[in-house]
Amino acid sequence: MGRAVDFQGAGAVVTGGSSGIGAAVVARLRAAGARVVVLDVQDTAAPVEAALRCDVADEEQVVAAVDQARQRLGGIDVAVLSAGVGGFGSIVDMDTAEWDRVIGVNLRGTFLCLREIGRAMVAGGSGGSIVAVGSISGFLTERMMSHYSVSKAGVAQLVRVAARELGPFGIRVNTIAPGVTDTPLLAPTALVPGYQERAAERTALGGLGTPHAVAEAAVALLGLAWVTGQVLSADGGVSLWSPIDPAESFGA
Fold this sequence. Notes:
It contains six helices and seven strands. It is α/β, with parallel strands linked by helices. The model has no long low-confidence stretch (mean pLDDT about 95). Helix 2 packs parallel to helix 3 and helix 3 runs parallel beside helix 4 (about 145-165). The protein has one domain: Rossmann fold (3-Layer(aba) Sandwich), CATH 3.40.50.720.
């Protein structure tokens, strides 16, 4: 495990912080000295400054929760936007309710949280750092996951625009793009024969990602003072796999 970035006394907000990557980010930020407020629809087991019930797709809830977090922390210095949902379905069979469910949480929710936290940071006048959790699915072509892929592609572009708009205020905005990571979001794929095994075999470093490994990258990215508007893949190299790799023809 790498050395923790020092966030001693920093006020941090983590969405989706009750499980998976979000929970690992909470643990890492707390270990680095940050005071953390979690926004989630589920209960949070970790000892944090506050755990606020918030559906990130609901504008009124986000506005109220971010304001409560700001007041509780005395200002927001850093944030990781980790709340997200997954889903499966072909384009021709998908109904609009399923499309809207995934886009609503993953893209609309990221926008709402980014907007409100950005406003709080601008008003605070001390800059800040925001990392949104995207996915390598945002730039790969994966069948049966169109709504998820589009939502994560949107997050990456939203972050790039936000980085330009908020940069003059000393606010950095970046994206972390996990690959196949052993979180509750991955659990349904256990029912897909061979899915997880294929992913593990095609990962350059071998195996599946862990929430703590991705959280380490996310928190490190939070602390990089001269980096903004970037997408950092934390996927163990699975996005390096190519179906037309000639070495496979030689059994390599």
